[in-house]
Amino acid sequence: MAGSGSAQLRPEPMLLSVQHLVVEYSAGADRVRAVSDVSFDLRRGETLGLVGESGCGKSTLARAVLQLSRPTSGKVVFNGVDLTRETGERLRRLRRRAQLIFQDPIASLNPRRRIGDIVAEALVIAGVSDRNERDKRVCEVLRAVGLDPGLVTGRRPHEFSGGQCQRISIARALVLEPELIICDEPVSALDVSIRAQILNLLEDMKARYGLTLIFIAHDLAVVKAVSDRVAVMYLGKLCEIGPTEQVFDAPTHPYTSLLLEAIPRPDPDAKLVEGVTAGEPPSPMAPPSGCRFRTRCQLAQARCATEEPTMREFRKGQFVACHFAM
Amino acid sequence: MSAAALLEVDNLSVEFATERGPLRAVSRVSLSVGASHALGIVGESGSGKTILSRAILQLLPRRARVSGSVRFDGCQLFLLPREALRRLRGREIAVVFQDPMTSLNPVLTVGGQIAEALREHMGFSLQKALSRAVELLAEVGIPEPERRARQYPHQLSGGMRQRVAIAIALSCEPRLLIADEPTTSLDVTIQAQILDLLARERRARSMAIVLITHDLAIVAGRTDEVAVMYAGCIVERAQTRILFKHTRSPYTEALMAAIPKLHSPAHTRLAAIAGAPPDPTRLMPGCPFEPRCRYARELCRSEAPKLAGAAEGHQFACWFPLAAQVPASA
Q1: Which domains does chain B have, with CATH numbers?
Q2: Could A227 and B266 be called an inter-chain contact, meaning their C-beta atoms sit closer than 8 Å?
Q3: What is the tally of structural domains in chain A?
Q4: Which of A244, B25, B128, B234 has the CA that lies 20 to 30 A from A97?
Q5: Is residue A315 part of a domain?
Q6: What is the pTM of this model?
Q7: Angle B188-205/A254-262 helices, nearest 10 degrees?
Q8: pLDDT tens, B176-235?
C-alpha cells in the first residue's frame, strides 16, 4: 500500500462487506481522495480495530460506511443490502441497524436537551409512539451503561463529566438495538482511569447486545484491548489487516512496525531508540506515486515508486500490501 | 533533593473563589528540580498539574490565591518585581504548551515569532534574529527552514507547529523548560519525534525540564524523577525507576494498572478505577483518593495522609502504602 485489492475479503456471508470504497472531496480545483480503494469485511460479533495517523481517512471511512457522506464509488454491503444504492426512507430504516459514537462526548450531545430526551430521540424518529414504552427502553439502556435513570434523565449534558457523557452517547447508540456500532476514537478525550471504564463497558455491551464493532483509534494499545482483527490505514489506503494478536506480535507492513515502535512504553527500562519515526505523512492532495508509504519507508526501493502493491495473504489470515513485507 | 536545586517549590497552594465556595486546585505542593534534571509531573485532568505550572510562572489570573514560595536559582519569584519577572520568563524559564495552534500568533510568520523572542530577550538586531530563527528551525528538525520561516502557523502541520513552539522556547537558551502536555494533540509517530527532540535538546544544552503529562508511559523513559498528582496533591514522588518498580501509592498503582498494555492478550479486561476524581470545591477531610481506593480503611476517611519520605527520596502520601518490595538483584 499502502495498496489496493480485495484479497482480504472472506468468502462466507458477512454482516458488513466494504468493497473498493472510494471517497473523494473537492478542494478548490483539486480532488482529494480521502479513502482510496479500501476493502474489508466484518463477521457478526466481531470487532475490527482501525488505526492510522490523523488525516489517514479513518473517520471519513466510518462516515462513508454509514452513508453520512456518500462514497464516490465502491460498495457497502450491510446485511446483504448495498447501502450505496439506497436513498431516503429506505436508507434511514437500514441505517437504524448501525450507529456511530464520536470522540468528543460533550460536543456530540445537544447541550439544551435533557438526557432522557437525547436518548429517546432515536426511538421517536424510529416511530415508537408510546411514551411509556420509550421511557422503559431509555431507562433500561441507561441502567445497562451504568447510570441511574432517576438521577440522569432530567439533567443536561453540562452537568456530567466526559466519562459520563460518553456513557450517555453509548446509551443513545444502543437504544435502537443496532447490530453494528462504529466507535470513532471513543476514549481519546478521556483520562486514563475513565478510559478503562469505557473500554470495559464497550466490551460488556458487545456481549450483552451481541454487537459488531468497528473501533477507530490512534492508540494501538487501546485497539489491542478490544479488537479481534485490526486494519492499519495510511493516506487513504489499507496497509495491513489481520487477527489482532498476529498483527501486533508479528507486523508485516513497515508502517505497522513503525506505529508499534512509536508507542511509549510504561516501563522505565524499555530501551528508547531515537529516530525510529522520521518524517510526517505527505499531503493527501498529492500522495506519492506507487506505494504511498514509500517516502517514510526504510525498505523502499525503486519498484515502490512505480508499482502500487496490492493486498496479498502473507500469513494465514494476515494480509499486507507491501512488495517487501517482513 | 540536591542542595543546588535550580527550581524549588515549597508548600505551594492555589485556591480560586467560586460560586460554590473556595476551589483548592493545588494543595501544599513541594518539589525541586536540579540543574539539567528532568522531572515528570503526572496527573489526570483536574489534578492540578497545569495550575501548578502556571503558578510557578505566575501566569494565573489575579483572582487565584497563591501561597507558598517558588525559588529559581535561589531567587524568590513571588517577590520579584514585574519587570524582572518578565525578563526571567522566556529568557531563563521557557514554556511549551499543549496546543501549538493557540499558543502561536496566527498573524505572524513563524520566523518572525522566533525573532521576536530573540530581539526582546537577547537584544538581537532584526537581521541577526531572523537568521538565527532559520538556524533554530533547522535545529528542531524542520525541513526547508528558510521557506518555513516565511510561513504562518496555519500552513504547518501540528507536529511542525509544536517544533516551532519548541524553537521559540529554546531560542534564548533557557535553563528550565516547562513542557505542559507537549505531545497530547499529536499522533504517536510525531509524539515520539517531539519527545526525542526534547531529550536531545536537554542533553545538548544541559537544560532542566519539567514534563507535565497525563500519560505515565511518556515519563517512563524520559525523566529522572516523577511526581504523581491527584486532586491537587502530590501523592507519590520518586526517582522514575523506583516509582515504576517499587510503587507505594495505591493511586499510582491503579493508574498504572488502568493503562492498556501492548503485551496483554486481546480482550484483556482492564483494571478500571471506579468512580471519578472528587469535586475540588467539596474536598472531604480524608484522603482524596479514599472513595476510589481498594485498600481504604476507616482512618483514610477521617484524616488526609501527608507526603512522607522513605529511602532514596521516595515520598508518598498514604496511611497504608503498598508493601515495600525487596529490591531485585538488578
Answers
A1: 5-85+176-187+205-316 (3.40.50.300)
A2: yes
A3: 1
A4: A244
A5: yes
A6: 0.89
A7: 50
A8: 999 999 988 788 888 898 999 999 999 999 999 999 999 999 999 899 999 999 999 999
